[in-house]
Amino acid sequence: MPILNRAEELQPEVAAWRRHLHERPELLFDVHETADFVAQKLREFGCDVVTTGIGRTGVVGLIRGAKGAGPVLGMRADMDALPIAEISGLPWASKVAGKMHACGHDGHTAMLLGAAKYLCETRNFAGSVAVIFQPAEEGGGGGLAMVEDGMMETFGIGEVYGMHNAPGVPLGNFAIRKGSLMAASDTFEIVVSGKGSHAAQPHLSVDPVLAAAHVVIALQSIVSREIDPLKSLVISVTTAHGGDAYNVIPMDVKLTGTVRTLLPEIRDFAERRLGEVARATAMAHGAVAEVSYHRGYPVTFNHADETDFAASIAAGVSGQGRVETDMAPKMGAEDFSYMLEARPGAFIFLGVGDTANLHHPAYDFNDEAIPYGISYWISLAESRLAA
Ligand code: NI
Which of 206, 238, 268, 328 is 20 to 30 A from 254 (CA-CA)? Predict the structure, then answer.
């Protein structure tokens, strides 16, 4: 099934929805206007059930097929934007200062709405499609909130699929892989405490700046010397704060950062060694390190059979040669991971061509990708739920 004629026809309308959403970015769980827009559209299309307020501000629409009973297929988009000031200069640029759709979630939401419109019109399947619109992908754990709210059980969802746009991948191409697709994302805070003094009398101090500097360097030895080079680990120290004056050795320095991993055992190892190395390195300098480690999104893990199925659907839309089935994993994180922990499924990337990168202030979702995305969702539903 190549790009569907109806998906092409829907493109201008879906692009208009996308630009409407782009002008009105909302953050995290605070996506009230976006959720209202989605729910209103789903009701207009004639969704059998439209439920709002799942996972605080998530929306689920249930579309029953006309060919009898069958399983419930979950298809998910994310709705939230980012705290970035847009510089695209486009007519539909963000009208909200300091916020923009820099990750293309406006495109994801609009494409899934387009597929929902088609599926409500045709209902050419057995069972049901649950279209899932989640808040707070960008750090709030909205996917987890929806799962914890009982979404899978409430709607009887048996499998879940997700999609993200990919700048740099040719327009309309797809990329996917089985197993670990995106990283687990954890954060840490290390407070290195010493003893302050006049900066001209360092021997009277325990210098936390020097100790913290050694901690930053020592943490990189975990990555470079303790992990199999063919297994992935990122430890990035991203902030260092301490001191207020050029002539005072401060009492303490705070470091924060992130840890990214693709395997549970590497994640456990990194958590343990980060604490040990930070504490022991600080101690070697007479200081004390207090370490707190917070686990964030888990690994986004694509299930084998569902990945094969998703890849075959993508190949049907764009052609076999335009689907990369063994893409390299990404060290970014994605909270669709929680839905994939709850149910089997697969997450796929859709190429949008040479646009600005995700999370860049000049990024704008490429509306030419819309027919590919809609066709993927429609084909997925009609194939998986064939009578
Ligand atoms: Ni995103």
Answer: 268
